[in-house]
TrEMBL record:
Residues 112-300 form the RNA polymerase sigma factor 54 core-binding domain. GO terms for molecular function: DNA binding; DNA-binding transcription activator activity; nucleotidyltransferase activity; sigma factor activity. Residues 47-74 are annotated as: Disordered. NCBIfam families: PRK12469.1, rpoN_sigma. Residues 54-74 have a biased composition (Basic and acidic residues). It comes from the Bacteria. GO terms for cellular component: DNA-directed RNA polymerase complex. Transmembrane segments: none annotated. This is RNA polymerase, sigma 54 subunit, RpoN. GO terms for biological process: DNA-templated transcription initiation. InterPro entries: RNA_pol_sigma_54, RNA_pol_sigma_54_core-bd, RNA_pol_sigma_54_DNA-bd, RpoN_core-bd_sf.
């Protein structure tokens, strides 16, 4: 059978996501910080997008302006400037209220160097001390290799032999340099084991004259961690009070001396929404502080007139992009407002009394209430935070599974977690509540059907240790 090439025409229908729709979906799931960065980047790249300095009422001339250009098909495609200058006007925010107060606060007279100075690193901190010490050039070279092999916690991750090979020195020289380095600040740095780290600190503090303390750290750290105290009391002929003094002293030592020089920066949460209680109702304020107010450039006409077809296409593309960005931002804020409004409707008990009144809720409940798809609700609640009368929480926090009650109703899992945490905080340290006992109390107080393994799962999720590890022996 012969093979041949042939052309055919075929008609088919398929769903295609336009760039505008992709942009709108992307804006929905951005956090507030990411949104501000995206808008600022678009302001830099799009010459036909500009930021308004202040909100002002639309003049009559601006209202009549579109009517004079009805014959311009390109103009009809774009959104009028007057429609978007106050595109967040329907959704009040603290930005408007705080604007006047911000102007009254004088600028902090912070030195320029202080604003841009970087935090010290462990490598820099140790190198600075070594340069001021009596270390020789050879020791400085060896110390540089040691510092380069430290873990974030400050432990040496290479053997003495490996360091000696990399530095071209003998093992005795490496041990000597290591002894010098471990006694710099932070004390115990470059240790190879937790025992060595703590023993160096004990030596520097002058506590190494107590042989019992030294042996407890060197040989029995695991026993102390697992609270196997009785064999230690018999071995060293100590009383519980004496052992407690040793434990209190050991707990003042730092087992991870390099951790305070970590490179991780704290993440500060800025709420996307503020919810305030006013009498018997709740007021929703969208936080637009730092978010530029956008409008289409007034100079677009000059850019269109007298240009070539290629230039005109570029202008139209940029103007269309600017218009869609403004519309997408408006849609994002509108969706966020409606979702928060619906959450308050379902979780009013939480806003009134706190986490103990948190109800079971799923994405479909909110989606059906506001007439949107579940995926839209999922995106708009991702990386978004709301400031409530009971603290700042993520919007996803309000969606939790349900536990059945004996009367046929349901209670939210987050409410059960909060009650478990409260019970543990009020327990007797010498007789902590077991998971089974907590389950029995929950059945009595909430009439909730909860198994012991479910209590253990919730407790572990909250980072609370088991009853055996919570038990106080002193």
């Amino acid at each position: 059978m012969a093979l041949e090439l042939r052309q055919q025409l075929k008609l088919a229908q398929q769903l295609v996501m336009t760039p505008q729709l992709q942009q709108a979906i992307k804006l929905l799931q951005l956090s507030r910080v990411e949104l501000v960065e995206t808008v600022q980047q678009e302001l830099l790249e799009n010459p036909f997008l500009e930021e308004t300095q202040e909100e002002r009422p639309v003049s009559q001339a601006e209202e009549r302006a579109p009517r004079a250009e009805e014959a311009d098909p390109f103009r009809q495609e774009l959104v009028k400037n007057a429609d978007w200058e106050n595109y967040l006007g329907d959704f009040a925010s603290t930005g408007k209220q705080a604007g006047g107060r911000d102007a009254e606060v004088p600028e902090e007279m912070t030195a320029f160097e202080a604003r841009f100075s970087s935090s010290p690193t462990l490598e820099g901190h140790l190198s600075w001390q070594l340069r001021l010490s009596s270390a020789t050039e050879k020791q400085l070279d060896i110390a540089e290799v040691i510092i380069g092999n430290l873990s974030p916690a400050g432990y040496l991750q290479a053997t003495v032999e490996n360091v000696a090979e990399m530095a071209g020195a003998g093992t005795a020289e490496v041990e000597e340099t290591l002894h010098l380095l471990q006694r710099l600040d932070p004390v115990g740095i470059a240790a190879r084991t937790p025992q060595e780290c703590l023993l160096v600190q004990v030596e520097v503090l002058g506590y190494d004259r107590d042989p019992v303390l030294v042996e407890l750290i060197r040989d029995h750290l695991e026993d102390l961690e697992k609270r196997r105290y009785k064999p230690l009391l018999r071995k060293y002929r100590l009383g519980m009070d004496d052992l407690k003094e040793y434990l209190d002293l050991i707990q003042t030592l730092d087992p991870m001396p390099g951790s305070r020089f970590g490179n991780e920066q704290p993440a500060y949460v800025s709420p996307d929404v503020y919810v305030y209680k006013s009498e018997d109702d709740f007021i929703i304020l969208l936080n637009e502080d730092g978010l530029p107010h956008l409008q289409l450039s007034e100079f677009y006409k000059e850019g269109v007139k007298g240009t070539t077809d290629k230039e005109k296409d570029y202008v139209q593309e940029k103007m269309r992009s600017a218009s869609w960005l403004i519309k997408s931002l408006y849609q994002r804020q509108r969706t966020l407002y409606k979702v928060v409004e619906s959450i308050i409707k379902y979780q009013r008990g939480f806003f009134e009394e706190g986490v103990s009144r948190l109800r079971p809720l799923i994405l479909k409940d909110i989606a059906d209430d506001i007439g949107m798809h579940e995926s839209t609700v999922s995106r708009i609640t991702t990386n978004k935070y709301v400031a409530t009368p009971h603290g700042i929480v993520e919007l996803k926090y309000f969606f939790n599974s349900a536990l059945a009650l004996n009367d046929g109703t349901e209670v939210g899992s987050e409410s059960v977690k909060a009650l478990i945490k409260n019970l543990i905080s009020e327990e007797n340290p010498k007789e902590p509540l077991s998971d089974e006992k907590i389950g029995e109390i929950l059945k009595e107080k909430l009439q909730v059907n909860i198994a012991r393994r479910t209590v253990a799962k919730y407790r572990t999720a909250m980072g609370i240790p088991s009853s055996s590890k919570r038990k106080a022996v002193f």
